[in-house]
Fold:
Amino acid sequence: MLKANSAIRVLHVYRTYYPDSQGGLEEVIRQICLNTQDAGVESRVFALSPSPDPISILRPEGLVYRSQRSFSLASCDIGLFSLPLFTELVSWCDVIHYHFPWPFGDLLHLLVKVDKPAILTYHSDIVRQQFLSKLYRPLMRKFLKKINTIICTSPNYARSSYVLAEMSHKVQVIPIGIDDRLNELSDIDKDLGLIEIPTGNFFLFLGVLRYYKGLHTLLEAMKGQSLHCVVAGSGPLEKKIRRYADENNMENVQFLGSVDERVKLSLLRACSGLVLPSHLRSEAFGVVLVEAAMMGKPLISAEIGTGTSYVNLDGVTGIVVPPNSPEHLRKALLRLARNPGLAEKMGEAARSRYEAHFSGPGMGSQYAKVYQRVISPLY
Structure:
């Protein structure tokens, strides 16, 4: 039962958001906001921006408020003048919903001395900045102790994270879900014809081109093969991997750069399968795996002890390979390419698993119950 006479007001807090950035975590926040609306939840988002003009933007999922990003330190965005806006939004909300990791968000919570219920979605351990992570740990522990409920996106990650192990008494698993868009597009040939992609004859990599995505493994696996792979996305590694492909005459790998939502969905519907060779725990879940499963596509991912192997069940919805192994990845690609019946069967299983575990409304219902639970002592 929701709070009487009004919506539950939830403030989502993360370092960046649409329209300044487009990534898997931003999409998760959007999906949570959209899929809790029917349960009587009103959402706002607080984020930093390099150009926060206008300060607020009305989007379908709610109002987005942006404060000036001053600088970044070890991938942590910092807004030196963001305290007044954050304080104002805290006074508006009933529940604060943090998205971890963002150490500056921890600091904001402690500086404002927030006295509202707070939950946190734990998206990933801090993997890369090991030295700075040790310095940050006391602040992190102090912050996490003040959080009412910590949401982990998969049981795999809950079991394998040392941070979550310390907080296990307040950890709950809610898998990431997305809205079903399987039947949204009808003219795939037209969409893909504009970018000269042959339908149904390629494997797809989709995402931001970051250090942990395993693109080096994918390129090595594709060397000398008759397989075709499309890489859709941009990011810090784009120039490096394009140069590598050019130097090795890899005409069977096509780079599209960033694509809009319609082309993304068209690629997902048309591909032979989705490949996500991420090799580090920074890939905590893999939203793109859910998007491909929604489209009924077989999945290929690497075993890194995170949610990727919760979404993609080896031998059922696709194939899970060892990380950093071009040989195993190549064998997986060839196996699906040479066995269309197997690929179709795995794709159907992926779609069934999406419907059972990763739907947007299912996720939204669970989050709405958490919001109600953490505010219930107050009403």
